[in-house]
């Protein structure tokens, strides 16, 4: 019975965490993979870093780190993301030019 209550509580906590405002941030899991991917156009000036996750991960993703140190798992098959990564690789000049205004800002 106690186990059941604990389980119910854990489920509730998980549910609450996922439905909160941070749901858009798909944090990278322990093995460096992404639990899910987004197609979100983060303006270059807010992007500090773009890295690929390991090849064995599913779904395929790139992790975009914003100037606020938020990590977004972006769909690696998405052309927009591929173009951004190519630009990032060749010239970082338009990237990372903004300051983080506040933690958790939506970019
Ligand atoms: C960008 O550089 C990373 C790291 O070297 C590499 O894995 C990736 O394939 C490159 N992407 C593009 C589109 O050039």
TrEMBL record:
Organism domain of life: Eukaryota
Pfam families registered for this protein in UniProt: IL8
Gene Ontology molecular-function annotations: chemokine activity
GO annotation (BP), single: immune response
Classification via InterPro entries: Chemokine_IL8-like_dom (IPR001811), Interleukin_8-like_sf (IPR036048)
Keyword Cell cycle: no
All copies of domain Chemokine interleukin-8-like, residue ranges: 33-82
Keywords: Cytokine, Signal
Residues spanning the signal sequence: 1-21
Gene Ontology cellular-component annotations: extracellular space
Protein name: CC chemokine SCYA108
Organism field: Epinephelus coioides
């Amino acid at each position: 019975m106690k186990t059941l209550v604990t389980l119910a509580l854990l489920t509730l906590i998980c549910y609450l965490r996922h439905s909160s405002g941070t749901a858009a941030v798909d944090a990278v899991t322990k093995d460096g993979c992404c639990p899910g991917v987004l197609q979100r156009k983060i303006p270059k000036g807010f992007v500090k870093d773009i890295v690929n996750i390991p090849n064995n991960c599913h779904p395929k993703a790139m992790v975009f780190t914003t100037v606020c140190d938020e990590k977004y798992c972006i769909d690696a098959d998405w052309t927009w993301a591929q173009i951004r990564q190519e630009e990032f690789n060749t010239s970082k000049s338009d990237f990372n030019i903004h300051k983080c205004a506040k933690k958790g800002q939506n970019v």
